[in-house]
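To illustrate this point, we now present one chain and its tokenised fold:
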Amino acid sequence: MKNHTKLLFALVSFLPALQITAQNPIIKNIFTADPAPIVHKGTLYLYTGHDVATEQDTNYKMADWRVYSTTDMATWKDHGAPLSPSTFSWATGDAYAAQCIERNGKFYWFVSTFHKKDEVSGGGAAIGVAVSDSPTGPFKDAIGKALIINEMTTDMTYAWDDIDPTVFVDDDGQAYMYWGNGSCKWVKLKKNMIELDSPITTFKPKNYIEGPWVYKRKGIYYLVYASAGTKPEMIEYCTAKSPTGPWTYQGIIQENVNNSFTTHPGIIDYKGKSYFFYHNGSLPTSGSYRRSVCVDYMYYNEDGTIQKIIQTTEGVSKIK
């Protein structure tokens, strides 16, 4: 009997260790999607969408955009939902993928949602930009209108192609925004981050579907995106010597995720390591419309190409 008691005690004692190592998904109390990380003053901030669809729903219901932060990659502080489509008087519908970046002490949150049918637009997907003096808000509509409306891009004939903005500021100070479903679109932004500074260009990277993420690392420009791959969605990428291309296709870096037909990349270097954020459907009662953000390590080869992402339930180790 004593041996059984010791065994039970050992098993119970081991449970906390199991719970600690099973980090993914990193947010377990609600359903989150479309992760977008930034680093500011030594803290990593993670911006996400928020799935509120029921188990019976057959489409997305995304209530707002949320913010989390960490300094050790294991403990995540919840800063709530400082932004929602209702922040924008012109918007209607859901809180689709978004990205927040800092410039000149202000934080610009580029979001995708839908536009009301009015004298400005006949409706369809649109991109807005909110601004704050803090990475956690409060945020307000920066311009009082959409930055991109459906009528501004005509290469895709449907109404939902203007989604999933990613914004990147190059070393020379020039800002670029990339976005799009079906085709990838890019445009220069003015230094104020709220006005366009070039015509819109569209192109189609190999197997591209949506969700672009653009960044520069060691002189190489990376365009990472949700793709058709061999079975939607995977993550594939291209590289270039310029933020405007030409882009060289490099291959698949993330295979299909668990229990979700979409995935979405968010990539960051933090405290000496590279991290790959994505979402899957691995929480109880989850699925393609009830997703959860995860993070795993990302590794580069000497030539700058990206190694395949290994998806884990353990996630990443705590930074000491």
